[in-house]
Amino acid sequence: MARSEKVSAVAELADKFSSSAGVVLTEYRGLSVKALMQLRRSLGDDASYAISKNTLTTIAAHEAGLDAIEEQLVGPTAIAFINGDPVLVAKGLRDFARTNPQLVIKGGVLDGKFVTPDEVRRLADLESREVLLAKVAGAMQGVLQQAISLVSAPLSQAARLFAALEQAAGENPSLLAAAPEATREPTNEELATEVTRKPTNEELAAEAATPAASAAPDAGNAPAAEPLAAPAAEDN
Length: 236
Description:
Elements: H1 3-19, E1 22-27, H2 33-43, E2 47-51, H3 54-63, E3 78-82, H4 86-99, E4 104-110, E5 113-115, H5 117-124, H6 129-171, H7 188-196, H8 201-215
Antiparallel strand pairs: 1-3, 1-4, 2-3, 4-5
């Protein structure tokens, strides 16, 4: 490869490292061209799968600030540059490796951090972004529906009550007449005040004078005293 071609290849790899959401390094030794084409199709738009020389990849990774992957650049290396959902890419590589054991996952970089082969496999066990969003949307829709039910149920009940009252009032207009005001009963505080209140001096004087006046006879209307009868003469 000419020097100009190497410089161009390094620049292209460095750009892919910088613009991708992450990368997964794999060893493809023993895989046929047909199998590699099948792997590229299985990854779809979520990743681009490219074979690169380790020397050029090391230089490009260094320029992109990904020095952590240099230790994994041993043996034939192919790189999956992640453009979409990292979970789908990890699933695609894992599923392909199950039927094509020649594909070996070496590790990768995700969000600027190095991930081990085991971490890539654990990533593949997660649910995809679309599934998670669908679950969140379903949960939110369920909560929203419950909120709508809680709000609308009392309103519908009140509407039915008002309709029943309106129908009853139309059949019997006397229902709309104001009810007589009930006699108010004295409160406990008012009763206690009434019991414990002491009469005033005027009330005591009036109460004392009333029996005496009614008991005294009228001097002008009093009957005259009857004269005493004379003693009878003794019989001698």
